[in-house]
Amino acid sequence: RANLAVFVSGGGSNMRAIHDACERGEVRGRVACVVTNAATCGGAEWARERGIPVLIYPAKKNETGGLTADALVDALTREHGAEFVLLAGYLRLIPPELCRAYENRMVNIHPALLPAFGGKGMHGENVHKAVVASGARFTGPTIHFVNEAFDEGKILAQTVVPVFDDDDASAVAARVLAQEHILFPRVVAAMCEDRIRFRSDGVPFI
Asked: Where is the Formyl transferase N-terminal domain positioned along the sequence (predicted)?
């Protein structure tokens, strides 16, 4: 099974969905380690309870145990043998060192249909509020490869969900999250089974 490194900043519900799919045999992988910028977040605590190693990145001045970018890459590649990196609600910019080490092997999930509603500051509730305010009739999760800019990597997979006239941001968020928990494991399964291909212009597909 492929070793997966999952990055989280919050509760880690997508990480849990991926882990459950691994346990059911739907994904030929295992969560080998978790990386977080928030040492006490729900996702990190969930991992610790299951004996999954938790790494802290980036390092903070007043806290011990945080990793530099080079140390993070070394830990993922050498210590944990991570073959793929999955950003599952991680709210920090990924360092160039990691982008280079995991080119076309690192994906992020975004709660809107990129390239709309992406970029710096567009995460979580901010995204869903912007979708509702725009009058868009459709939204949904996007999974894309990660490069050195927020939300600008090549799009790999999307799922469309409706936005209804009486929706608020919370209703949209719940509908999108339900689809995230379906889409992300499917994409990870494809990655573990080497079913990702690229068009001649570099656009990936499953």
From this structure: 3-188
This model's pTM is above 0.70: yes
155: β partners: 144
Structure tokens at 31: 């969560």
- Per the omega criterion (within 30 degrees of 0), is the bond before 58 cis? yes
End-to-end CA distance of the chain: 19
Q: Which residues contact 189 (CB under 8 A, 6 or more apart)?
A: 21, 26, 27, 28, 29
CATH number (3.40.50.170, 3.30.70.1560, 3.40.50.700, 3.30.110.70) of 2-205 reads 3.40.50.170
pLDDT by residue (tens digit) across 23-77? 999 999 999 999 999 999 999 999 999 999 999 999 887 777 899 999 999 999 9
